[in-house]
Design brief:
- By secondary structure, the chain is mainly alpha-helical.
- It is 91% helix and 0% strand.
- The protein contains two helices and no strands.
- It is rod-shaped and about 60 Å long.
- 1% of the residues are buried.
Length: 80
Amino acid sequence: MVNDMASYAEQIAAFEAARETRVARLKELADAATEKGETFDAEAREEVDTLKAEVKSLNQQIEPRRVFRRLIDVSYAAMA
């Protein structure tokens, strides 16, 4: 079970890093539009939509792994 915990922790960290990269890009796009006083053009809108979908997908990967990790923690506590 120790390997499972490390594996879940590593997976969570990788998904969170990927999510943060996408969130940072979303912020860049929003800041650029704000600085120009413009709305998103079609290309930026498409990128924003893609990034939002990727963030949602990453969140859907992260949450179950957090649950699994908590379940493993509870199992260890019960065995102590």
